[in-house]
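sorry to bug you again but im stuck and you know this stuff better than me. below you get a single protein, a line of residues and a line of whole numbers that encode the local backbone shape. mainly i need to know what kind of three dimensional shape the backbone takes. anything you notice is useful, everything is just below:

***
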Amino acid sequence: MAGQDTPVDPAKALEFKEKGNKCFQAGDFVAAESLYSKAIDCDPTNPLLYTNRGLALLKLHRFPLAITLSQHAISLSPPPSISMKAHFQLAQAQIALHNPSSALESSKLAHKLCIDEIVAGGKGGGSIGPITELVLRCKKELWEQREDERLRKRGGLLEECARGLERERDAYVSVLQAEEGKEEDVERVKERYGQKIEELRRTFELAGAVGEEGKRRKVPDWCLDDITFSVMLDPVVTRTGQSYDRSSIMEHLKRSPTDPLTREPLRVEDLRPNLALKAACEEFLEENGWAVDW
């Protein structure tokens, strides 16, 4: 992806990168993206430069190119922290282009890399919140996409049934019209089938209201985080047996290194994954994407 005539010069690449950082911080994303591009030309094997340019492209809403840059950064087998950023950016671009399925996979990989970095003592803690939010957004948009498809199919079934009644009506009418003096019968058949079609449409509408919109939506208590009261994505359990979402308990521990329930000392190292609860929460969210906004 580098310019063919540009000699490899890591020191020059660093200069362009620093200039790009200053432009980015000043909100000049066009200039920043251009400088990061020049940096890549000088050092095309440095994955950090691709994530820097990718972030500028996200700010400029140039999502297809941001996807290409993120994927190239990943292909360079970067350190986990840079791989996490690349997957995070990839997911942001994919969801912006309304591809929630791919975005969910990318964001989940970013989430896993973030946790791995935290466990290894890295700086991933600052990214866990935004990445968790993105995973939940992707889950919700994927559910909404599936719901739209389900509703389209239901609407297609309604129209198919209605057309069946119309064909049946037209067949009766054709027989009656072949005979003389059946005008009143024709009108009665048309009226009767008109009522049937209207009743069919009302039945479908009622079924939708009762089956989905009219159903009382409630998130079970076991699925909720006791700090944010949101649905948990990655539950972890403390020494006292209480579960919290990883992002919310880590945010709490930044402010106060204590157990939210007992106020006893608590460290990140004391948290353990609650795999059974995680599986249950994932299953609930897959079937109830609306719960993301609970």
About this structure: The mean pLDDT is 88. The two ends are 44 Å apart (CA to CA). Residues 10-137 form a domain with the Serine Threonine Protein Phosphatase 5, Tetratricopeptide repeat fold (CATH 1.25.40.10).
